[in-house]
Write a structure and sequence with these properties.
This protein has a seven-stranded antiparallel beta sheet. The longest helix has 19 residues, at 63-81. The protein has 153 residues and is of the alpha+beta class. The two termini are 24 Å apart. It is globular. It is built from three helices and seven strands. It has one domain: Hotdog Thioesterase (Thiol Ester Dehydrase, Chain A). The chain has helices at 10-16, 63-81, 84-87, and strands at residues 7-9, 28-33, 37-44, 90-102, 110-122, 125-134, 137-150.
Length: 153
Amino acid sequence: MTEDIKTLNKIEIANLLPHREPMLLIDELKNIKHLKSATAIMNVKKNSFYVNGHFPDNPVMPGVLIVEAFGQAAAALTAHGIDKKEYENKLVFLMSVEKARFRNPVIPNCTLELEIEAIRSHGRVWKYKGEAFVEGKRMADAQWSATIVDKNN
């Protein structure tokens, strides 16, 4: 088990996840409750890779990227919480997405706060739920499952 830290910065998150720019979406993981919950911060910038094409005159963050950010936040929470030797040479893969709802458009130049919670785990399979907010307004929510797999498979 790793030491419980209240906040992880982007470099520490990158040390837990295989994602790299531009696909490393999470900038910070805070309010970490060991293997239970956390709040991820994603700074949605006007120069984000999707802005020029989605949609040029009225940019909106694609919902699928909100789901990806949920998944990255959950993977970082889990990777941070389990024994380092157990997670060595492992990856967390998204298995399913359920009940995804996109309630309001997320536009550039905002901070997206993703409140995630691990609902249950069974072996290498984990189930999570999350809600995404901008300035306290709910933008999206979803449930999803992920599994921990060997890196070479």
